[in-house]
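User: I'm putting together notes for a lab meeting next week and I want to include a structural view of one of the chains we've been expressing. I don't have a solved structure, so I'd like a prediction I can at least talk through. The sequence is below, exactly as it appears in our construct file.
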Amino acid sequence: DDVKHAQNGYTPSPVLTIDGVPALEFLQKASVNIVLSHDPDARFNGMFRSLATDTNLAYASPEPFALILGDTTKVTCQNGTRFEFSNAARLRANFTKIASGADLYDVYGRGDSTDERPLNARFYQLAERNYIAAFVGYPKPFKSTRHVAGFLPESSEFSDIAVLALNSFNEAPNLDHVDRSMSVQQRDFYQVVVDSISAAKAANRTKLVLDFQGNGGGLTSNIMALYFALFPGDTLPVLWQARAHPQFAWLGKQAWDPTSSIGQWPVYNMMRPDGKPWSSFEELYGPFPDAPAGQKRWGQHTHPAIENTTSVLRSLTDQWPLPDGWQYQQPWTTAPFRPEDIIIVTDGQCGSACAIVVSILAYAHGVRTVALGGRPLRAPMQAVGQTKGGPSMYFMSMPDFDRSQVPEGLRLPPDRFTYRPPLRLGGSQATELDDLWAMTVTFNVNDLLPYKGNASELGQGEVPLQFRYEAANCRLFYTWDMARNMTDVWKAVAGVTWGGKKCAPGSTTNADGTIGGVPGYTKMVEDQYRLGKGAGALGGK
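Assistant: Thanks for the context. Below is the predicted structure for the 541-residue chain, given as structure tokens.
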């Protein structure tokens, strides 16, 4: 319909119902099945394609509909037009041996079958993407890779504004370059960020829009490179706490080696908040009391720690040296923009590394945020609606140790060379692609704590950011033009940030509707729909 509208002047009629259910209600119920996003507004945005996710070579996931669609879907439009669509699933696997649920489990559920595995459907989707095409709906970038681009828009509204579009902190997977090392990604990301900021300053652009739409995270080294390009230094103002439990305690004690590199185990890069190394794993482990005496405890945690940024920023090029010898270096010593001259814009689909850097910029520096889209509510919306994690630790990066010494009853991560997942991962067991994907199973042990550079400010009972509601300073709904032209998005964001334009009703603390402080929690933002009991069941109100 969008294509017909643009090319032929066709005006589509609004959809009234889907399978007899009001369209908005149907979409909100279906969005409950969206993976990654915890926030209902971020999940709602995840139901639709966007310019940002298309640029990142992402796709609108079909998973939300898999458990609720029948053989057909009936759509009724406002003008009375009715459509009926057939629903079908395309299976890549060879099901000639599958005659029952037990057969399905034996071949694909046990993990020890010798039957050939089909390629993960994700590979087919990636193969259909165009890795070199220009960004659709974006102006011409000053400099770009597929996951980060710098813009100096030419219209008068942007005379003093530059834009960094950060669609990911990982390069989009490219099946033609599966051997492209992460050190190359790190170098390319760094150069786009640094060169774009340098060009902005040379052009007297004193304000910066940081566009994180569709950014699901990526490399920790890239968020450090971005942060230090904006606020030069050598410490990332964020504290991590790991869950303190017997498995982690035993693993840490057995594998602790502070002289080793991050390539062995990321825990080695955890430092005391004063920047000094921990004397032992036991000192790091604690556990740290999470509540004053007599108050309710909500779990055991390690002592708060900061990351050794020097080690992280050099770790990739140490493992995969570049022919030209490139290593990360801080580009300058003075911040190129004031915090009040930076604005963050997201569509709520910001998680992992994206969540970390947005939280740092907001908490440590007071950088404001604008959230786009979401449910049609007169209420605030969170800028970060996906998982708020910390650095992930790969099973394959675990140091080798004597498993015969494991205490009875203590379960450990599986050995990285002999392990076969309980659910068989897509790929061919004999190919490098399998190693690339199947061995990236991770676990995350970290909580993220608000921190402004003074460890003494961290009190017992501090609630990690993962468990906080964090509304954006302002919310905007997409207009027809904003959904098709990214320049219009940035123009709207700049208008509410520096031009006195109004935010969506109910989304700001200022009575006149302009951008203000951070709105508090309101019951209006709660989920109306939840998963019911049973696998895949969809609950109602």
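A couple of points you could mention at the meeting. Residues 416-445, 534-541 have pLDDT under 50 and may be disordered. The first helix runs from residue 2 to 8.

User: Perfect, that's what I needed.
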